[in-house]
Design brief:
heterotrimer; B: alpha+beta; Aldehyde Oxidoreductase, domain 4; Aldehyde Oxidoreductase, domain 3; 3 domains; 7-stranded mixed beta sheet; 23% strand; globular; C: alpha+beta; 5-stranded antiparallel beta sheet; 4-stranded antiparallel beta sheet; 11 helices; 31% helix; 27% strand
Chain lengths: 162, 798, 278
């Protein structure tokens, strides 16, 4: 009934994955170590820096604060999947255009978190963008270029809709 | 005689056709990083790789009486449990001293503590297992018998007779002392119309790189070679140190640095646990990986900037600054960090106070003392944030005292823009700075007059906004005067090798490294311009001691200025080599040819003569068709080191506009500006982004960050919830402007820009807060970080 | 840091969760936003984790008569988007954006926040301010515990070792209801340095049933009862003077600063309470 290791089956970036994992293994460690999806990063393991942000059943979540065994039957999307599907293409291009990433460690999580805001539509203010991104730590950029990049994509998407 | 020019004007070195110098070209490595396809050390996995967790001392100071790992060794997945004594057989200890810091002393530091732990967090035992989790499980089963010792935790009393001496072999707790006395300081104070005397405190803080420190060491017993994957800023330096302390030859060691999740100086140092990991790999004859978790990062990543500075300024009523004096005390850890030493930060403080100004009377004393807290060493802008906070804090306090506008007092005292070459009171040599032009530029950019008017209007409504400034100089492009002269095997020169491949693209191998600041892009831009190809045809190789020229790496803002110049010269040399071949193939004089856009052309009119692909094909596959005596050498290496100036000083000025909520003590940052003169700008966007990132790090120092210790040497806030790093919602927009004063010490004329933001931001935020609160007669704040608590106290509300 | 090993079980019903809690040293896993962080740091090492995320029927938000009932497994994100809460529990709606960050709110649950009872958290104070109650299932069956009786000490509530918090209930807002919320945190989303959740009923020109629940000022959310009485009589400054909080020093602020800030927040929240309901 209660086990230290369990078989789980979930969809990761559109692929069905079936593995046996220790109950104590976090989702981010499972993604990185068991599936070699190293695009999600470990920065603190206490849910503060946001570098591990992925999508679980369509909502962004801190993968260091979820257990892999909790994700049995869920749909998980990491940066690799979000990138290859093209969903983040305009954000990635804007980030590159404005050098909104330097070392790149926080970037996969920044992109997922930005997309979570932008897919709601509209053109958020710079303050609203800063508030949405307030849980993602960046030491390199000072955030200004990140806000610029997200704002420009929001405007472009809104313009494209007209 | 009239000179008739019928040929086109001679291009200057930088005015190459299709030049990338001065263009904001997007970095080529951004796409893989934005796709989550980076290769950070924490991503590296090798066959049979083991994981190490370190058992760390919970005491700031304790004898290690015994370690019983008998149960731990039998735990699931355990490969080895290794003590300091066992590791000492494989790796020698090190001492962090340099001869040019006279009198600097430190005790030998082992990779794992042997008989005594000297700070809370020092490793006392290594547990190697098949997984990190299993290593941590076993670590809990190790019984260490500690005999706690009194801990030295107060720098103010570290040298008192009754304070225990941490290393008896050293005699006392003094690591380093520096004194400077220039001009007639006492006379100057005596003749001053106003003297400000106050104490500044800069809080101990740490880098909090996004990617925690990680290292993978792979000793190959069959090859007798060590390969280390490390996010280091100085691969060749680490290659030398690993070899030295393991008794290997340098060529037996290869250091690989791919993507690094942030360094800021944190990654330029030698860490005991990283050295231990390397030694364990050799001992166990298999790859070993160590990734510091965030909790251990807080107590082992170098700390910095823990200073108490008593400071004094003397001015005349016309605003002339006539004297500066400081007494700086800093409490480092129990060891001076290797190999750059923990004396450099205080040394820089002494060097840099008063730096932008003409004042010639200056007295300074700095003492660096050992304590039983985490080790301290160079972190972004080393010493500058402290020296600038002291200098600029004093200048604005003096201005307020004599009723002078803070920009006006600076105009009256900054070194004139036409006064160069010049020297500061502390003996710093300046080639060419632009303090006044930068100040004028800032004034216009921020519309200072309008902000003052707005401030006045809002004060009448009980809203308190402040404007603060900081002028600064910054050390970049260091020569061997920085470390080499002291005996450190830290290279101040750097090299670039550029080869033409068989399809007409160029491969640039360079000794400087990428940490996110854009070195890869800058090298590509320089090489593409210098040689003459479109940037899409440039590939840069960095971070590999086997495959790059011997170099210094990236620190002290040297990559663009020094690494860039080597790439520039190598590009020119390769162009000459290629044109020698082209000349032979085209039956033309090489000096009449040029390479533009990947094609050999007539220099006079740009007529295309020979695509590089074709030249390469012939050189590599059909050398039989070349004239006799012609051997194509389509690769070139050049090195560069600054010789004319010990450092390429840059200058800048920053401003902060903020609002203080006088009910809560909370500070809202409204806007920030920086005008920076870093010489020739190779990529304006990258320079601006370095400044912005640096400014926010400095804001962290001013408002948020401090490593808090109790009197027992326990760090109280070593986690991301309690140690506050700047996050997006509290940060302002940051506007950047530039003045350009190239250095003549290189053809590119580029100085460094990586640290300027951090150097000036704490000072101008401090000055802005004090400016905001001045009408309320608040006690000036000089004790960082400026928390709501401190601001409320200054206002007398608490 | 990796958690110490533990066993894991998925409870399919509240009764099963209660039974499993009786078996060994066990903890409930709901949102996990506090629990997993403490497991990662080995501050907590239970032998068994009981995952209750799969238990149906614990995540509804509904107006039932004069109460708003919120299932314990309701995610913060769902509460943030809920029209029922916006209309009928406006104090909770005001608190939601302050709770952590978006990614935390997508997983964290209201029941978890109340049961964990971090003294600097928003929701326990809201529950106290609204005179709410929690529904609990234990080995002896169901019971209701009023907010005033729920928060006992630092991370200590009236929940027994085998209890499962299943729902939160707060009085639905009426035309007379007034609410106020203010929080000071160094950075957006941080735990509060000091915070105040307040509710009252308008009574002509005055207020009645004033409930002021401060958070970040002690081991639990704290009602400032003397200040409540003064505020009811309309004297804000007297209410500030009557604050008798005794917050400990912590790494963010000293006790003296927190006391001062509590007064500042009281003035700001008093203004909100006096505002006409939109």
């Amino acid at each position: 009934m209660s086990e230290r290791a369990l078989d789980i089956s979930l969809t990761v970036n559109g692929e069905t994955v079936a593995e046996r994992v220790e109950a104590r293994k976090t989702l981010v460690d499972f993604l990185r170590d068991d599936l070699s999806l190293t695009g999600s990063h470990v920065g603190c393991e206490h849910g503060v820096c946001g570098a591990c942000t992925v999508r679980v059943n369509g909502e962004i979540a801190r993968a260091c604060l979820m257990l892999a065994v909790q994700c049995d039957g869920t749909t998980v999307e990491t940066i690799e999947g979000l990138s290859d599907s093209g969903e983040l293409a305009d954000l990635q291009a804007a980030f590159a255009q404005r050098n909104a990433l330097q070392c790149g460690f926080c970037t996969p999580a920044m992109l997922a978190t930005a997309q979570d805001l932008l897919k709601r539509g509209g053109v958020p203010s710079r303050d609203a963008i800063r508030e949405q991104m307030s849980g993602n730590y960046c030491r390199c950029t000072g955030y200004h270029a990140i806000v610029d990049a997200i704002e420009s994509v929001a405007q472009a998407r809104a313009g494209a809709k007209k | 005689m009239k000179i008739v020019e019928d040929s086109p004007p001679v291009l200057t070195a930088l005015d190459r056709p299709n030049s990338y110098i001065g263009r904001s070209v997007p970095r080529p490595n951004l796409h893989r990083l934005a796709q989550g396809r980076g290769q950070y050390v924490s991503d590296v996995s090798l066959p049979r790789m083991a994981h190490v967790a370190y058992l760390r001392s919970p005491h700031a100071h304790a004898n290690i009486v015994s370690i019983d790992a008998s149960t731990a060794k039998k735990a699931p997945g355990i490969i080895a449990v290794v003590t300091g004594a066992e590791l000492a057989k494989v790796m020698t200890p090190w001492v962090g001293v340099l001869t040019h810091l006279k009198g600097l002393k430190s005790a030998p530091q082992p990779p794992i503590a042997v008989e005594r732990a000297c700070w809370q967090g020092e490793a006392v035992c290594a547990v190697v297992a098949r997984s990190r989790a299993q290593a941590e499980d076993a670590a809990e089963l190790i019984e260490v018998n500690y005999q706690p010792l009194p801990a030295v935790t107060d720098a103010e009393t570290a040298l008192d007779a009754k304070t225990p001496v941490i290393h008896s072999s050293l005699g006392d707790n003094l690591c380093f002392e520096r004194k400077l006395d220039v001009g007639k300081v006492d006379d100057a104070f005596a003749s001053s119309d106003a003297v400000i005397e106050t104490t500044f405190v800069t809080g101990r803080h740490t880098g909090v790189t996004n990617e925690p420190r990680a290292i993978v060491a792979d000793w190959n017993e069959g090859e007798q070679r060590l390969t280390v994957y490390q996010g280091t800023q100085a691969p060749h330096m680490m290659q030398n140190l690993f070899a030295k302390h393991l008794g290997l030859a340098e060529h037996q060691v290869r250091v690989l640095t791919k993507d690094v999740g942030g360094s800021f100086g944190i990654m330029v140092h030698t860490y005991a646990d990283e050295m231990a990991t390397v030694a364990l790999s050799k001992m166990l004859k298999r790859p070993v990986k160590f990734v510091a978790d965030r909790i251990e990062s807080f107590v082992t990543d170098i700390h910095a900037r823990d200073h108490r500075i008593k400071a004094k300024i003397g001015v005349k009523k016309d605003g002339t600054i006539i004297a500066f004096e400081i007494d700086d005390l800093t409490g480092i850890g129990p060891y001076s960090v290797y190999p750059r030493t923990s004396g450099i930060e205080a040394n820089q403080v002494v060097n840099l106070v008063g730096g932008p100004y003409t004042c010639s009377n200056y007295r300074a004393q700095a003492r660096v003392v050992f304590t039983n807290k985490n080790v301290m060493c160079q972190y972004r802008a080393v010493g500058h944030p402290i020296a600038v906070a002291v200098t600029e804090g004093l200048v604005e306090l003096a201005a307020a005292k004599i009723g002078m506008d803070p920009l006006e007092i600076r105009r009256r005292n900054l070194l004139p823009d036409d006064a160069y070459p010049a020297q500061s009171a502390a003996g710093l040599k300046f080639e060419k700075l632009s303090h006044h032009e930068s100040l004028a530029h800032l004034d216009a950019m921020m519309n200072y007059a309008a902000l003052r008017a707005e401030q006045k209007k809002l004060r009448a409504q009980g809203i308190y906004r402040g404007i603060g400034f900081a002028s600064f100089i910054e050390v970049t492009n260091p020569s061997a005067a920085f470390y080499g002269v002291g005996g450190a095997r830290i290279s101040s020169q750097d090299g670039a090798t550029i080869k033409l491949d068989a399809q007409g693209a160029i491969i640039v191998a360079t000794g400087v490294s990428e940490q996110g600041q854009g070195a890869e892009a800058v090298m590509a831009q320089v090489a593409a311009t210098s040689f003459g190809v479109p940037i899409e045809r440039v590939r840069v190789i960095m971070g590999d001691t086997d495959n790059t020229p011997y170099g210094g790496g990236t620190w002290a803002s040297r990559a663009a200025g020094i690494g860039g110049e080597a790439a520039w010269q190598a590009g020119k040399a390769l162009r000459a080599n290629v044109l020698a071949v082209a000349g032979a193939m085209l039956q033309a004089k090489p000096e009449t040819l040029d390479i533009r856009n990947g094609v050999v052309v007539d220099a006079a009119n740009g007529t295309e003569r020979l695509p590089l692909e074709e030249l390469a094909r012939v050189a590599y596959f059909r050398p039989d068709t070349l004239p006799a005596g012609i051997q194509a050498e389509i690769v070139a290496t050049r090195h560069y080191v600054p010789r004319a100036w010990p450092f390429a000083f840059t200058n800048g000025v920053q401003a902060s506009y903020l609002e203080v909520d006088t009910d809560t003590g909370f500070v809202k940052l409204l806007k920030h500006w920086c005008v920076e003169d870093c010489g020739t700008i190779i990529n304006p966007q990258l320079v601006d982004e370095q400044i912005r990132g640096g400014v926010v790090q400095g804001i962290g120092a001013a408002l948020f960050e401090q490593c808090l210790y109790d009197e027992r040497g326990q760090m109280l806030n070593g986690n991301m919830a309690d140690y506050l790093v700047p996050m997006a919602a509290e940060m302002p927009d940051i506007e950047c402007g530039h003045v350009v004063s190239p250095t003549a010490d290189s053809e590119l004329g580029a100085k460094g820009a990586g640290e300027a933001g951090t150097a000036g931001a704490p000072a101008c935020v401090m000055n802005a807060i004090n400016d905001a609160l001045r009408p309320l007669r608040a006690q000036p704040l000089t004790d960082m970080p400026f928390t709501p608590d401190k601001i409320l106290r200054a206002l007398g509300k608490v | 840091m990796k958690p110490a090993p533990f066993a894991y079980a998925r409870a399919r019903s509240v009764d099963e969760a209660v039974a499993l809690l009786g078996e060994k040293d066990a903890k409930l896993l709901a949102g996990g936003q506090s629990l997993i962080a403490s497991l990662n740091m080995r501050l907590s090492a239970p032998a068994l984790l009981i995952d209750i995320n799969g238990i149906g029927g614990l995540d509804g938000i509904a107006r039932n008569g004069d109460m708003v009932e919120i299932g314990a497994l309701t995610r913060h994100a769902a509460a943030e988007r809920s029209d029922v809460i916006a209309q009928h529990a406006p104090l909770i709606a005001r608190a939601m954006p302050h709770i952590g960050h978006v990614a935390i709110r997508s997983r964290g649950t209201l029941g978890g926040s109340i049961a964990f009872a971090d003294p600097a958290a928003e929701l326990p104070a809201c529950l106290l301010a609204l005179n709410g109650e929690v529904e609990v299932s234990g080995p002896k069956g169901k019971r209701t515990i009023k907010a005033d009786d729920f928060f006992k000490g630092l991370f200590e509530t009236a929940l027994g070792a085998q209890d499962v918090l299943t729902a939160i209930r707060v009085p639905a807002a009426t035309k007379e209801t007034r609410v106020g919320f203010a929080e000071l945190a160094r950075r957006h989303g941080d735990y509060a340095m000091v915070g105040l959740a307040a509710s009252a009923k308008v009574d002509g020109k005055n207020l009645k049933d004033v409930r002021l629940a401060f958070f970040g000022v002690g081991a639990t959310p704290v009602r400032a009862k003397k200040a409540e009485a003064a505020l009811a009589s309309g004297d804000v400054e007297a209410a500030v003077k009557a604050l008798d909080l005794d917050p400990p020093d912590d790494v963010q602020a000293t006790s003296a600063a927190k006391k001062h800030l509590a007064g500042v927040l009281l003035r700001r929240v008093a203004k909100q309470l006096m505002e006409a309901r939109p």
